[in-house]
Amino acid sequence: MPEGIAQHHDGWFELALRAGRMVAWEQDLVTDHVSRSDSSVDLIGIGSGPLSGILERIHPDDRHLRAGLGRSGRQEEEVVFRFMTAEGGQIWLATRVRRVSPERLIGISFDVTEAKTAQDRIREMALHDDLTGLPNRTCCAEHLERAIGGAHPDGVALMALDFDYFKEINDSFGHEAGDFFLKTIAGRLRALSGKGVTAARLSGDEFLVIAPGLDRQEAMAFARKLARRVGQPVEYRSQTLWAGVSIGLSRYPDDAETADGLVKAADIALYRAKNSGRSRTVAFKPEMGHVVEERQRLLSELRGALRYGQVQPFYQPKIDLRTGRITGFEALARWFHPERGILTPVSFQAAFEDPHLSLRITTYLFRRVLVDLVNLRRIGLDPGTISFNLSNAAFGHPKIVRRIVAALETFDIPAESFEIEVTENVLLNRNEIVARRKINHLRRNGIRISLDDFGTGNASLSHLQTFRVDTIKIDKSFVDDICDDAKGRAIVSGIVTIAGALGLTVVAEGVETIGQKECLQAVGCDQAQGYLFSRPMSYDRVVDLLRKETADQGR
């Protein structure tokens, strides 16, 4: 043992070294002989001897760290490296050294395995999703940067996944079922990983999959395979959970030259997939970016329009085809744009597809309609039943029914004065249990339900039994040719007959000619609306119309 160490070699010093799992040592930089304290045999299984004795037990990737100590010219240094034990295990050693002369180095090495393991565990937790164990957003970004940095000649494909109706799984079966669903999906994604493929969970039901080495055709084939695998229903406690998956695909270097650009391109393609009917796989195209930018500009303008009261309800009357009297009105959104004039919902349809903005518009318009109703009642006018449209996004909000019922109570409006209109696709493109529960909740509170655009969905007649409604509205496409097309007239007649047997009211939309009106009367249709009777109108014109009708009835 060297003299410097021997001077302190008593019982307490050696005990301290052993207790701290440390080794004190001295290295001759000329001969590379290393003298070590007795504790070295216990800790690393090596006593004093040549430097090569410890170097050959250090992990090859870390060997240069220990070999270079004392050669840099610095007075003090510290390194951490992996060391292989005699039993074949691995520990982490930290070594601090001081150069005390040109030929002499002294140091101390200590076991930091526990600290290093804890540090690695913390990093692992920071880079992985708690629920699924998949890499998280931060870790995914690192993987994507590395994949692009060492890009395969065929490039890197990125797939953004979103589950179309995951929220409804939570609403219908609870968050425990939702968590089970996500963990099952993560398992399926993990099974598809390998050969450089990485799957990550960003948040909620959003996932990313990185697949290097695929050309555009192979990437699309892989994305479709992905959709088939993860889009399968999940069995949970004798219940079947299904959410449908939409995928947006982008590729490096075709669609973007940076990781952020690639993610943005995949998100744009995902938006197109969801906007095109959901449960689809769409590859990015440059022109899609312009559409998304225009959409964002439109949504931003519309948020401002809500703040400044530029969105208002217009009303189109519904007419009893037997008496010719007004039975009610359909409330329709109108945007008083400062530059483009009065816009119909066709011009800002994207707003109704955005869950948050759609709910804002719905809530705002509903309250404006209620204010108009209160004012009509205050001046002694009865508009009949007001029909109010719910978009797909608004109907999907878990609190929408509660908000509607609460608003009616706040304004002291009888629930029977209201009819909520939904399309077939709003009902059919979601979890059937949730949709039926919301419909029944509205009806229990006295609010009527109208099925809009009837005949244009996937399974119209069969779903009249599944969803209890009060009114069906025959789509304008059937009304247009009712007088000239025998097949179309037979369809309308059949709808009217079935509706009558079920005790439902039938309203024909888009009536524009006297001939259409007479043909609808001939098949027994109850009510109609359209330009033949009136275009949608402002509140003031509704007042004038109702006053005129009241005066006519009094004669």
UniProtKB/TrEMBL annotation:
<dbReference type="Pfam" id="PF00990">
    <property type="entry name" value="GGDEF"/>
</dbReference>
<feature type="domain" description="GGDEF">
    <location>
        <begin position="154"/>
        <end position="286"/>
    </location>
</feature>
<dbReference type="InterPro" id="IPR043128">
    <property type="entry name" value="Rev_trsase/Diguanyl_cyclase"/>
</dbReference>
<feature type="domain" description="EAL">
    <location>
        <begin position="295"/>
        <end position="550"/>
    </location>
</feature>
<dbReference type="InterPro" id="IPR052155">
    <property type="entry name" value="Biofilm_reg_signaling"/>
</dbReference>
<dbReference type="Pfam" id="PF00563">
    <property type="entry name" value="EAL"/>
</dbReference>
<dbReference type="InterPro" id="IPR035919">
    <property type="entry name" value="EAL_sf"/>
</dbReference>
<dbReference type="InterPro" id="IPR029787">
    <property type="entry name" value="Nucleotide_cyclase"/>
</dbReference>
<protein>
    <submittedName>
        <fullName>EAL domain-containing protein</fullName>
    </submittedName>
</protein>
<dbReference type="InterPro" id="IPR035965">
    <property type="entry name" value="PAS-like_dom_sf"/>
</dbReference>
<dbReference type="InterPro" id="IPR001633">
    <property type="entry name" value="EAL_dom"/>
</dbReference>
<dbReference type="InterPro" id="IPR000014">
    <property type="entry name" value="PAS"/>
</dbReference>
<dbReference type="InterPro" id="IPR000160">
    <property type="entry name" value="GGDEF_dom"/>
</dbReference>
